Queue: 2 jobs
Job 1
Amino acid sequence: MMTELPAFESFCHQYSSEQACAEALFHARWPDGFRCPTCRHSHYYLTRTRRMPLYECRSCRVQTSVIAGTIMEGSSTPLTRWFQALFLIASPSGISSSKLSKIIQVTYKTAWLIARKIRHVMQRADQYDPLSGLVRVNHMKYGYSYYQDAQQPLLIGGAFTASAQNIPSTDLIGSMSSTKTEESRPQLNNRIPTQA
Ligand SMILES: [Zn+2]
C-alpha cells in the first residue's frame, strides 16, 4: 500500500469533488455524448436541484442519472468516497473493509457493503472479460491476519497490454479494467495464456 500512496493521493486530487466524479461517470457512461437509455435520443434537459444531476430525455421524458443502474445508485455515500474505494479495492494489494472505512471515513458497515458491491461487479466483469496478452499473477491473502482461518486466498492478475500500459494509473476506468481480483485456484490455468 505504501508504494501506491502517491498514486492514490493524485487520484483523490483528480476526483476531489462530486462534480469531478459525476463528470467522469458521464464520460464513462456516454463517451459519445448523452444517449437516452430508453429511446437513444441525444438531447436532454438538465436538472441540478438534486444531489445528483438529473438528465431528462427531450423525446420520451425518461429521467436518468450517471449512477442509475450502477452499484452507487441509492447510496447516500458521496461519489468521492466511492471513487476512493474503487481505487483502493482495485489496487493490486487490495484492502480490508476496516482499513477502507478508516481511509474513506465511513462506518465499517458502509465500507463492508461498498467493498462487497465493488468486488461483486469486478468478479462479474471478469467472467465476461478474461485476461489476455501478457498476464502476471501474484498469490496473496486478504482478511484479518491474526486469525489464519479468517484469511482468504487470492490471486491478483493483471494483463499488460500495449493499450493498458498507456492508461495513467490515476484513471478510474483504466485501473478497473487492467486489474483483476479473483478467488484462488479454480481458473488459474485458464487465465495464463499458452505460448503460441
Ligand atoms: Zn428517451
Job 2
Amino acid sequence: MTGVKRFYPPFLFTSQVRHREDSHMKRSIIAAVFVAFCAAGLLPAKPPQNVKEVEMTAKKYEFSPSTVEVPAGTLIRFKITALDREHGFEIEGVKDSCVTLEKDKPATYEYKAEKPGTYEFKCCKRCGFSHGKMKGTLVVK
Ligand SMILES: [Cu+2]
C-alpha cells in the first residue's frame, strides 16, 4: 500500500494520513511562509522607524537616568514619573514643549532626535531651591 498517498486532497491528508505527518509538517511550514510573504507584500511600505522608550523618574533635583544616548533618527518616547512632587520636563531648544509631571502620574514626552549633538533637558516647573540645577543630558550620535 505504498502508491496511494499522493492522491489525498489536503484536508484528508491533514487529518487521516498519520504516516505522512513529516511531509504534512513541511507543507504547513511552506504554506505559513508563503502566507507570511503574501501578507508582507500587502502591507503598505512603511519607512522603518527607530523608537526608543526611556523610562525616567524625576525628583528633587534630578532626573534618572540623567544621561540618555541615542543614534540620530531615533524617536525617543520618554515616560517620566515624578516621585516626590510636581516637576516638568523639557528639552533645550524645543519651544513650548514643557510637560508637567504630576506626582506618580507617568507623563509621555516624544522627541525625534534628528541632529547629532548634545542637548540639555531640564525641569521646567519651579520645584524648589535647586530647581535650576535639575538637568540632564541627551546625546544624539
Ligand atoms: Cu523644577
